[in-house]
Amino acid sequence: MAQALAAENYEFKAAPEVVKPKTKYRPQVIQQSDDQKDRFRFKFILSSLLGCNIMFDKRVIRGNTYASVQTQGDKKLMTLKSFKKPTQKAQAPQAQTTYLHPQTPRPFQNRVNIDIQTDEYLEILTDKPPEQEMDAQTDYYIDKPPDRLFVPKKNGIDKETQIWEGDLFDFDQEVEPILQVLMNKILEQSRMEVLEEEEIKLMKLQQKQHEKQKADVFSNMQRLEAVQQRLDQEEARRKLQYETFLKIQKQSHQKIICRTLSKSLIGPLKQNTFKKLQDLGVYRDPLETALLSEYLPWMYSNILTDLIDEDGNKSSFNNMLFDVEDSLTNAHANSILRRKQFIENHYEEIARKKREKEEMKRQEEERRLKEIEDQRLAEEEQARQLEQQALEQQENQQQVQQ
What we know:
6 helices, about 400 residues
């Protein structure tokens, strides 16, 4: 069909018409009646409530966004601004330009302007209170001029010397704030390092607890999802089984009713009715009779047996799938537990190694301090011996001199 349509020649014909000119940007002002004004006002209010297209909004300016917008203001206001008062010849060549304030616009139709206060707070206007002008004059005082600075007479001979910056200073006074700053800085740094170590330790402990809690929640969630999935599958299987049972029961009931009605209707007939009908030529095809009486019941019974076997196979297969799912779920949970135990053992091993390393560092530091202390004691002992020898030599020299 598509090829046939494509094969045909497609033509378009339209009647000629006059090309309409483009509309002006600003339509001409036409005198309208009151009904037309009311209708236009109603349309404007309705369009403002329902929304409008900004492409046709006069307030939207078209063109370059970076260019300055040249707007035509109120001609009356521009005229008032350009008005200047007459100046005299004695004034400056360039007189100050004064502007007149624009008048208040007239009210709209069916509206009235009222006087309001524009102050920051409301004030009740009352009658003009009584006023009286008073003046006062204080005594005239002359301030005393400031005293001149006493400059003693210069005597002696001027001398000069060069003292560079930092030549004169008190070492004890200058070094005290530096040492105090260094000591405070070291103490603050040490305190910050200790606090950071404690904070890192606490953060690691909280992270470990959070990961443990997260793993527990995840395992519980998976277990609950598996239980809910098994319950849903069991519910669907039970519903299908119950529907099948109702269907079979309904069919059996219908068969029993049909058989009972058939016996009640056909029972009173004579025994040789079938033979008479056969003699009359009603059942002329023995093959059809054999097919209906022997083959079809046998086929129905075999099909029913196959269906029952198939249902049994499906149920056994579903049970086997449930067992496999349970075993996989248990194996997954065991693997998660083993992984969790492995991670805990790994963290414990890392902590143990860290403690051993810190213990080794501490022992090394103690050994180094002990060596330094022993060396200091040995040097003190050696200095004491040298001092004692010097004293003995001095005593010997004094004895010899005596």
